[in-house]
Specification:
The protein is of the alpha/beta class. It has helices at residues 5-18, 22-35, 40-60, 80-86, 119-136, 155-161, 168-184, 196-209, 228-238, 385-399; strands at 101-105, 113-117, 144-148, 163-167, 190-195, 216-222, 242-248, 252-257, 264-266, 271-276, 290-296, 307-317, 323-334, 339-340, 346-347, 362-371, 374-381, 404-409, 424-426. The strands form 4 sheets. It has an 11-stranded mixed β-sheet. The chain has a 4-stranded mixed β-sheet with strand order 18-17-16-19, with helices on one face. A two-stranded antiparallel sheet has the order 1-2. Keywords: Ligase.
């Protein structure tokens, strides 16, 4: 049995009204804030929301006792291992025996980390997802093709939400033609959301067929950094500009691009973001790459205050030279995925190779730093010595003319356990060099990827 998008939409909002309209109220809150995030009234409102959360955390969480709710900087910067090892001391005392939602994350490596959420935080995550999807062009009830590794949704929920799960692992095994046919056969408009590598596989299949999709309402990329090919090809083959999203399991949806734009608009309605220096817990200089540190404004059961995500990024800079704390101009990924040039300076991986489309024949790739000034480029590709020489020369323009680069052909790039594709990796065992400007030693080992 199938019901129309309109019927699902009406049913969703009817159920919400019967419950007192909690989703609609939260949705209005989020959308109003994100419409004018830098206005004085919104900033004052968010300051009050932040202080209420800090006051609650300082009064009820043992590890945060004694911190000043009026000074965010008085709270310690924490990370996953610290909160995992601290156990109940990072939980709010009034919620110790409450019924809470639980999820476990270890990312792709490491010991599991149990994240606990109260009902308000659970609902906020749901509404955050709805608000940001609506900003990209989605509406409730629309068929959504979700490309991911795990499929946690029940059959009933999939039917109710018009959700179609696609396993990104299957896409690597030749499922792209079948999935493109399934999308074409669905009455539109439809939404496409999922891992960037899965969306790229769809793009390449549509390109080979020579007939673009004509009923896509939005394309949302998550979990992986989109390639230049995907940004460039999305309007051509999906009929919509790509929208990339930044999120994690612990905190939820942190930021999202506007269609056709590269900066990420921070979800300031639900999170307070800081960019801290690589070599300390002070703020990074305006426009400087630093550690992305987040305070969750809604999880009162297990407050995440000044939580180091393990990612690096930088704020946009306003005309007066101050940071725009509502916009991430750049997100460069996990700290242990960072690449350093031959002079030991951090290189933005997003700037490496301006146009992958110029290097034909490469299906999958991974750039790995293996030592000081030494790099390995793994590629599943047709053999082309001239392309390899040109690509190595372009790498040296970013990494240093003295960079030693090995080009290696492989059968495929292994996926992480999460199903994500790791485009950049650093396998250099640097030990513990003294911290200093631009040195990897400035980023403590505990901030490694989860």
């Amino acid at each position: 049995m199938n019901i129309s998008t309109g019927a699902r939409n009406r049913a969703f909002w009817a159920v919400d009204r019967l419950k007192g309209s909690p989703v609609r109220r939260s949705l209005r809150d989020i959308e109003a804030i994100l419409a004018a995030p830098r206005s004085a009234s919104v900033q004052a409102f968010l300051d009050r929301r932040l202080r209420r959360l800090l006051a609650h955390a300082a009064a009820t969480v043992p590890q945060l006792a004694g911190c000043d709710p009026d000074r965010l900087s008085s709270f310690p910067v924490v990370h996953k291992a610290m909160m995992r090892d601290g156990g109940a001391d990072f939980r709010s005392r009034p919620y110790l025996h409450a019924h809470l939602s639980e999820t476990a994350t270890s990312g792709s490596t490491g010991a599991p980390f149990r994240v606990l959420r109260d009902d308000v935080k659970v609902r906020r995550n749901v509404v955050d997802a709805l608000a940001l999807a609506r900003a990209a062009g989605y509406d409730v009830g629309m068929p959504m093709f979700y490309l991911r590794r795990e499929h946690p949704s029940s059959r009933l929920r999939e039917w109710a939400e018009n959700l179609v799960d696609i396993d990104v692992g299957d896409m690597r095994e030749g499922a792209a033609p079948r999935e493109v046919a399934r999308i074409r056969g669905t009455r539109g408009p439809v939404a496409l959301i999922g891992y960037a590598s899965g969306l790229e596989a769809l793009c390449r299949e549509i390109e080979s067929q020579g007939s673009p999709l004509e009923h896509v309402a939005c394309v949302i990329s998550l979990a992986e950094s989109p390639s230049e090919y995907l940004y460039r090809s999305s309007p051509r083959f999906f009929g919509q500009e790509l929208t990339a999203r930044y999120s994690d399991v612990e905190l939820g949806l942190l930021a999202q691009q506007r269609p056709g734009e590269r900066p990420y608009r921070i979800n300031v309605a639900s999170h307070h973001v800081e960019i801290l220096a690589l070599d300390g817990d002070g703020p990074a200089a305006p426009g400087e790459i630093g550690r992305i540190v987040v305070t969750d404004l809604f999880n009162r059961a297990m407050p995440f205050v000044r939580y180091d995500t393990g990612d690096l990024g930088r704020f946009a800079v306003l005309p007066d030279g101050t940071p725009d704390t509502t916009v991430l101009e750049e997100i460069t990924g996990r700290i242990n995925d960072q690449i350093y040039d031959t002079a030991d300076r951090l290189v933005s991986v997003l700037g490496i190779v301006r146009d992958w489309g110029a290097y034909r024949g490469i299906e999958e790739w991974q750039l790995v730093q293996t030592g000081s000034g030494t790099y390995l480029f793994r590629q599943k590709a047709t053999v082309d010595a001239e392309r390899d020489r040109a690509l190595a020369e372009e790498f040296r323009s970013y990494l240093g003319r003295d960079a030693r680069i090995e080009m290696r052909y492989v059968d495929g790039i292994p996926l992480l356990r999460s199903g994500k594709r790791r485009a950049f990796a650093n396998e250099w065992d640097r030990g513990t060099p003294a911290a200093g400007p631009g040195r990897a030693g400035a980023a403590p080992a505990q901030f490694a990827t989860a």
